[in-house]
Amino acid sequence: MRKKIGGVELNYKYYCGNDLYSDGNIEDIILKYCKEEKEDELLKISSKWAVLYHLAEERGNVIEWLDLKPEAEILEIGSGLGAITKTLSNKAKKVTCVELSDKRSLINAYRNKEKSNISILVGNFEKIEADLGLYDYITLIGVLEYAALYIHGEEPYKELLVRAKRHLKPGGQLILAIENKMGLKYWNGAEEDHTGVRFDGINDYLRSDNTRTFSKKELSSLLENSGFSNYHFYYPFPDYKLPMSIYSDAYQPKVGDLREDAFNYSSIRISNFEQDIVWDQVCFDGMFTYFSNSFIVITSEKEGDYLFVKYNTDRKVSYRTVTSIKESENERYVIKKVCGSLGNAHLAQLPQKQKVWAQNQHSFICNMGEYSDGFYKEKYITGMRMDEKILIKSHSPREIIETLKEFVDDYFVPNESELTPFVMTDAFKDIFGTEDFEDEKSLRVTNIDLILPNLIYKDEHVYAIDCEWIFDFPIPYKYVIWRMLRYLYFQYHKRMKEYITIGNYLTEFGLTRDQQKKFYGMEKALIRYTTRKNEYSDIRTSYSQKAYMQIIR
Q1: What residues have CB less than 8 Å from 460, skipping those under 6 apart?
Q2: How far apart are CA 264 and CA 129, in angstroms?
Q3: How far is CA 1 from CA 14, 15, 78, 79, 279, in A?
Q4: CA distance 335 to 308
Q5: Is 2 buried (19+), middle (13-18) or exposed (0-12) by CB count in 10 A?
Q6: Residue-wise pLDDT tens for the chain (553 aa)?
Q7: SS3 category, 517
C-alpha cells in the first residue's frame, strides 16, 4: 500500500500495523498542527520538550554544515517526525526514510509535502533492509542507542552498523549522532536522555537493558568491530539535538567558550557544580573530547574540511549567517555564509567597511576579508586570544581587573586626533536608540565588536578578527570599552559575581553609572535591531525546566 501527501510518498509494505515507538499523545497534537501548516504557532504556545525537540529549527544544524554531494542519494534510518529530513532533502537528489511509526511518518510527510525527492518506508529497518539499495550517505541521528529494541541478535548495536554498511556505495559515508554517556551534563545531574535515570549511563546502565549510549572509546571500538576502519569525530555543543556550535579534534574549544544556555529543557536538573567553571577546567586540561555531551561521527578515509561551525539562530534573517573554520591545503580560513538571500547585503559590505575602519584607528591590525557569491572569507589568524592571555597572566578577579586596565589604556583609548564630538544622526537612532551623549567623544568609524575573543595577540601585535559590526557615524568610543568589559564579566560571571557586582566592576574603569545605564540602553536597541532575541528567548523560556544546585555539607 502506498500513499502520497504532496510530493512525499509513503510505502506501507513493511508496516506491521502498530506504531512501535511514540512520544505519546503529543504526537497527535503535532500532527494536527503540521496538517494545518502551523508548526511555528505550536512552538510558541507549547511547553512540551517533545514539541521543541521535534520542531525547533536548530535540529537541522546537526547536518546542515556538511558539504554533501548535490546528486547524492541518502538513506535516513529512523527519520522520526522529519526534524532532519528537510535539511537532507535540501542538500541531495533523493532521500529515502525508514521509520517504524505511521503517525511519525505522516507528520514528516505533512512537514515536507512541498518536496518531491522524499520517500518514506514505514516499518522496521530489520525487515526493510533486504530490499534497500546502495546510498551515498546513510544517517543514524539519535538511532543507534535504540538498536536493542528493534534489531535481533546478541550484538544489536554492532548488527545495526553492519547492516547499514552493506548499503553504502563505494566511498559512501555513514553519519552518526548520539549522546556521550560520559557527557559533562550527566555528571552535573542531568537525567539520562533515554531512561530518565540520573547517572544511568555513567553507571553503565546497570538497571537498563533496552537503550544505551557510549563513551568515545566504546563508540570507536564499536565502529571498528562493525567494519568501519576510518571515521572522524565531531563535537556538537551543547549537544546534537539543538547544536549551536560544532567542534573537531583539530579545533577544540578554549577556556571561556563553553557557556551552555540558561535553559534546561528535557527535565528538572539537580546540579552538582557550577558547569561553566568546570567546562573551563575541562578545556584547559584538554579533556573536552572525553566530556563532550554528544558526538557526531562521519566515516570516511579523509577528514572533512570543516574544523569548527557556529550558528547564530537568534539573529534576524537579514543578518543570519553560519560561521565556520575550514582547512584546505594546510591553510585555515574563516568563512561566513548567509542563511538566506537577505543576508547577502550585510556580508557584501564587510570588506569595504573593514578597510575604512583600518585607516581610521591605530591600535589594532584589521584582519580584512573578501566577499564573493554569498560567502565572506578571511584568513585564520594563529596566535593567542586576548582573553586567554589575560587569564593566563591573572588568576583572581582583582588581577583580571588590573590587567584589563592596562590593556584598555594601551589599546582602547584613542588618540585625540581620532576623536570627534558626538552628533546624533538618524542612522544612530535607527540602530542604537535615542540616548543622549552630547558630552561624549566619538570615533569617526567604529568597530563595536572588539570583545577579547575577537582580539588575537601575535608577534607583539593585536589583530582584530570577525570585524562584522563597523559603523561610519559617530558612536561614543567608551561604548566599545563598556561592551568589551561587560562581555568578559559575563563570560566569567560565575567567578566575577562572587567578588564584585557588574556596576562596581565597570566603575573601576571610569564608567559612571549614568554612562553604564545609557550604554545598556544602546545595547538593548542594537539587540532589537539585529536579532529576534526577545521572541526567541520567550519561546525557549516556556520550555525551560528548573535547575537546582545541590549543596553538600
Answers
A1: none
A2: 38
A3: 9, 10, 20, 20, 52
A4: 10
A5: exposed
A6: 899 999 999 999 999 999 988 899 999 999 999 999 999 999 999 999 999 999 998 999 999 999 999 999 999 999 999 999 999 999 999 999 999 999 999 999 999 999 999 999 999 999 999 999 999 999 999 999 999 999 998 999 999 999 999 999 999 999 999 999 999 999 999 999 999 999 999 999 998 888 999 999 999 999 999 999 999 999 999 999 999 999 999 999 999 999 876 567 877 788 899 899 999 999 999 999 999 999 999 999 888 899 999 999 889 888 989 999 999 888 999 999 987 666 688 999 999 999 999 999 989 999 999 999 889 999 999 999 999 998 887 778 999 999 999 999 999 999 888 899 999 999 999 999 999 898 899 999 999 999 999 999 999 999 999 999 999 999 999 999 999 999 999 999 988 998 999 999 999 999 999 999 999 999 999 999 999 876 777 778 888 887 777 766 5
A7: helix
State phi, psi for 497 to the nearest 5 degrees.
-65, -25
CA separation (Å) from 299 to 66, 142, 223, 396? 13, 16, 9, 44
Cα 78 to chain center, whole Å? 23
Q: Which amino acid does the sequence have at 240?
A: Y
pTM: 0.95
Whose cell is 580584512? That residue is 368
The beta-strand segments (E) located in 425-465 are: 441-443, 446-447, 455-458, 461-464
Distances (CA, A) of 474 to 428, 448, 518: 8, 12, 15
For residue 456, the tally of other CB atoms under 10 A from its CB is: 23
CA separation for the pair 547, 347 (Å, rounded): 39
Residues in the chain: 553
437, 422 contact by CB (below 8 A): yes
311's torsion region: left (phi>0), alpha (psi -120 to 50) or beta?
A: beta
Sequence-ordered strand ranges (E) for 180-268: 232-237, 245-248
Strands 419-421 and 321-328: unpaired
